[in-house]
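Hi L.,

As promised, Gfo/Idh/MocA family oxidoreductase:
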Amino acid sequence: MSTAVPIVLAGARGHGRWHLENIRRLQDKGIVRLAGICELTPLTDRELPEGLGEPEQSADFGALLDSTGARIAVICTPIPTHTDLALTAARRGVHILLEKPPAPSYGEFRRMADGVAEAGVVCQIGFQSLGSHAVPAIRTLISEGAIGELVGVGGAGAWARAEEYYRRAPWAGKRRLNGVDVIDGALTNPLAHAVATALALGGTVRAEDVTAIETELLRANDIESDDTSCVRVTTAQGRPVVVAATLCAEDPDDPYVVVHGERGRITFWYKQDRVLLQRADHGPEEFEYGRTDLLENLVDHLTDGTGLLVPPDTTGAFMKVVEAIRLAPDPARLPDHAWQLLPDERRRVVPGIDGLVAAAADTLALYSELGAPWALPARTKEVST
């Protein structure tokens, strides 16, 4: 364990439990060592997975970094806290794995990214799907002309969340809390991977790659943010990226991204690392890929110079989408006749939404263009760089 990299985890409950298990996996391999946990209330012995030892626990993030000698901080805390915690780590020379979305606004994102760069530390943004080996494989297929000239990229996410999901934390389902941006919507948090992956496969990763963004934001649940939404990104390359998402699916299924070419298409189920290639004059071909863990990639980058997979600037285009959603009018409430409550599951569903989500990814059209009776005209935001 002497060569294991000491790590502090900020936010070990909720999604942070996934990070705890991942840290344990890497600790078993001798790669990292969990030195500390930052939580407002310490984890109990029952909450701490076996095999992690007895990490120091404190609610004071900066003091914990100092006392443990941490080299990496994994930050999985409420969205509005990301920038300040990242900068707290950066000022101490501690490298960072920052959970997605990296910030609730483009301004906060730039403050984080610029501060990290100035401090000379490394930051990895936690879009795990971008660690899939399918991503470079798909880029190679595109560059080799397997599906002809690239036309555009669609993304589809039809998920379900019970009403209880929006009571999991004070900031859940909020656009703002106590005057601070949160922007916890379908496209910006639970299905943010669909947006980031679609942008990445379309070659639109940096802020300057985005020229305009159209948004349609709606909600069936009694929340501030959107739970049923779509976005179309106009890119500098002239190829649109359209992502449709809902947390009110009738039959929830794995999200996917589809790359459209003039002579075929590539579908990527990013949670499964599975790819389907369909092209003219060929039968369908299916591939499965491995995945590089982003924390392990960060450690490898620090120890032997391996390329970092998701540095902040490669999420600039995604953050432009977050900013467009932040600046858009508050999501429109769907009329009562447009959704139903499933009593057994205590969740709201929007009849027909599964087909609309798929059609948007298929045709690169927005809900309003697909004839959804409850859709409003898209709001367009021109993007300045």
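Residues 272 and 288 are 8 Å apart (CA to CA).

Thanks again for sending the construct details.

K.
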